[in-house]
Description:
Layout: H1 3-15, H2 18-23, H3 27-30, H4 33-38, H5 42-55, E1 83-85, E2 88-90, H6 100-110, H7 117-130, H8 134-139, H9 142-149, H10 168-177
Antiparallel strand pairs: 1-2
Amino acid sequence: MTDLLRTHWKYILAGIAAPALVILFSSKLKAQTSSIKRNPYANLRAFLTMIQYAEGTYGKNAYKTLYGGQLFSSYSWHPNIAVTRGGITSTAAGAYQMLYSTWTTVAQTLGLTDFSPLSQDRAAIELISRRGALEDVLAGRFETAIDKCRKEWASFPGAGYGQGERSIELLTQVYQKAGGLMAA
C-alpha cells in the first residue's frame, strides 16, 4: 500500500462513501460540479463509479451483486459463491466484482472484518494501489490508470479475459459524468 493511501485512507473513504456513489448521476450533483473540482478525491470517486459501471454492478444493489447479476444478502464476509455463466465460473462478488481469493488476500492485508460497502471500497482502492495506479487516478491520468488496472478488472479494455471488455471511450464518458477530471 502506498504511503499516500496509508496516510489518507480515512479521508479518501470519506470522499467516496457508498451513498455518494449512488447519487453521482443525479441532476442535483450536476449543479454542484464546481465543488467536485475542489475535492482532491473526486477523481478516485469517479474511477470507482466507473469500475462499477464497467463491471455491470452500478446502482442500488452494487455492493451485493454476484457475478452474473444475482444478489447475496449478508455483508458479513465475501459470499464465495461460484456462479457459472456463459461458460465462465467465477466467485466475483460486490461492487468491484472481486474474486474470493483476491478478497481474502486484500482483507488480510487491510485487516477487514466484513464485506460491507466501506470494506469493498477500501479493498478496491488497495487493488488500484497495488497496480501502481492510485497516483494516476488522483492526478486524472485516466488512460494510464486504466492500462495499469486492466488485469484487475475483466471489463477493462485489454484485460484479455474474454468477458466483454468496455471501450476506453465509454469508460471515459462514465468517468467524466461521475465528476472525474482528466489531466491536462
